[in-house]
Amino acid sequence: MKQTDKKGAKNQIGAYGEEIACNYVRNKGFKVISQNYLKKWGEIDIVARETMDNKGKVHFIEVKTVSYETKQDLNNAVSHGTWRPEENVHGKKLLRLQRTIETWIAEHNYEGDWQIDIASVRVVPREKYATIMMLYNVII
User: Fold this and answer.
1) Interatomic CA distance for residues 100 and 42, integer angstroms
2) Nearest 5°: CA angle at 61, between 58 and 67?
3) CA distances from 101 to 11, 91, 113 (A)
4) Among 19, 106, 109, 116, which is 20 to 30 Å from 57 by CA?
5) Would you kindly state where each structural domain of the chain is located, as residue ranges?
6) 15-18 contacts, C-beta under 8 A, 24 or more apart
């Protein structure tokens, strides 16, 4: 497989994970304000509010997705405690995210409460199966 093919497949899996995370937070009563808020210094995967009335706390959600060939592979990875998607949110990533959040806050003149969350998504695309774990209020 060519490097560009691998990157395309990775982007496709990432987009799939972001859609799963958006649906998850909507089902939890959040209102998704935007997806893929992009600046040259960083990106926020999902911006959502706790309530549908536009008065709740804003959540900046970083989505990390990993894919598996089969449900058995996914279950083995989970049961053996192997690599977890959220481990890819390291200090450098959080600093870029913080700068992008500061830009979003300034552009929207937002003065309310906010927090950073991580959506850890594991998918088996061929079987249309996924799991999600949310880590709330990640501290920088």
Assistant:
1) 6
2) 160
3) 22, 15, 12
4) 19
5) 3-135
6) 16/65, 16/123, 16/125, 17/63, 17/64, 17/65, 17/119, 17/121, 17/123, 17/130, 18/45, 18/46, 18/63, 18/65
Token readout for 64 is 């990390």
Q: What is the pLDDT of residue 55?
A: 78
pTM: 0.84
**pLDDT digits over 78-126, tens only?**
766 665 666 666 677 788 899 999 999 999 999 999 999 999 998 999 8
Predicted pLDDT of residue 73:
82
Backbone angles phi, psi at 92, to 5 degrees: -65, -40
29-87 per-position pLDDT tens digit? 999 999 999 999 999 999 999 876 777 899 999 998 988 888 888 877 776 666 566 66
Q: How many residues does the chain have?
A: 140
Helix (H) or strand (E) holding 27: helix 3-27
Architecture in CATH for domain 3-135 = 3-Layer(aba) Sandwich (3.40)
